[in-house]
Design brief:
The chain is rod-shaped and about 105 Å long. The strands form 3 sheets. A 5-stranded mixed beta sheet has the order 4-3-5-12-6, covered by helices on one side. The longest helix is centred in the N-terminal third of the chain and has 21 residues, at 62-82. Strand 8, helix 8 and strand 9 (219-224) form a beta-alpha-beta unit. It contains 10 helices and 12 strands. It has 298 residues and is an alpha/beta fold.
Length: 298
């Protein structure tokens, strides 16, 4: 069985409203002969004359009367489905968004973001999941709605990205640590005992490259895969943790933080999403919430 021409639904809707071939032709900006041909196709498709002559005009058949409201609703639904959504009722929105974030993001920005979302859209829930790697697959397959991280050259070319904030590495030690007193020089920093953060288990990174330019080398005593673990170790020992400033503000509460005594590269943390979500009004609203919360926390 061949697929019917769904464009005929619009024609049928106008014909049943007008009850006139000439009137329907004017509304659809067709010639009377083109509208007559369309009516003939409708009659063939439905197996019913739909409009029959009665005196000098046309009257609908029982089948046409039966179809009138159904066809009108179908056309309205189709138009609504194809029309760009410009407004969303946040108070009525019920939805769960999944955010995959770098470590420390939830602790620092989560409370303000959750409060903001709850105030504007009480039916929306946020689900935060850990980001163990830079694989963009979860964004592509729809398992994740939004992701935060540093944009790299191997990121999927189809992904959308928008900068959230600039960040930099700083040093952090326990209260009472020897580095709490006196000037922190590159040599003094390098001579301490360090905890290095690396998801791949590496003992060297960009900070070590910067120190190498000065002829210095850190003493890395242990390697962990997350900022919170590094900060926790530094809080309970003499280890020095070098972590992103913005991402670890809450984690470092009560500890001594200091600017690194050498030039270290800054980096931009961005918000990432898949193009399939770009035009979704609810997703657009949530992206705005994340951007504003991160900006307010600067």
């Amino acid at each position: 069985m061949s697929t019917p021409d769904f464009n005929l639904l619009v024609t049928l809707d106008v014909l049943l409203q007008e009850g006139s071939v000439a009137g329907a032709a004017r509304r659809l900006r067709l010639s009377p002969s083109a509208m007559s041909r369309a009516l003939a196709r409708l009659r063939e498709t439905t197996g019913d004359p739909l409009l029959v002559r009665a005196g000098r005009g046309l009257v609908p058949t029982p089948r046409a009367l039966e179809l009138r409201e159904r066809v009108s609703q179908l056309v309205q639904d189709a138009e609504a489905a194809l029309r760009p959504t410009e407004h969303i009722d946040l108070q009525q929105l019920v939805r769960t968004f999944v955010l995959r974030t770098s470590e420390g993001f939830v602790e620092n920005f989560g409370p303000a973001l959750i409060a903001r979302v709850a105030a504007e859209a009480p039916g929306v829930r946020l689900r935060f999941v850990q980001k163990p790697d830079k694989d963009s697959g979860p964004l592509r397959d729809g398992a994740v709605d939004l992701e935060t991280g540093v944009v790299e050259s191997n990121m999927g070319p189809e992904l959308r990205a928008q900068a959230l904030f600039r960040d930099r590495h700083i040093g952090v030690v326990r209260a009472g640590h020897p580095l709490c007193e006196g000037e922190i020089t590159p040599a003094r920093y390098a001579a301490g005992q360090h905890v290095n953060v690396s998801r791949r288990g590496l003992d060297k990174g960009q900070l070590d490259e910067a120190l190498q330019m000065l002829g210095l080398e850190r003493q890395v005593r242990t390697i962990v895969d997350g900022f919170s673990t590094a900060v926790a170790l530094a809080r309970a020992s003499d280890l020095i943790a070098s972590v992103p400033e913005r991402h670890t503000g809450v984690l470092r509460a009560g500890m001594h933080s200091f600017a690194l005594p050498f030039a270290a590269p800054e980096f931009t943390v961005s918000l990432l999403w898949h193009p399939r979500q770009h035009a979704d009004p609810a997703h657009h609203w949530l992206r705005g919430c994340v951007r504003e919360v991160c900006g307010e926390s600067a």
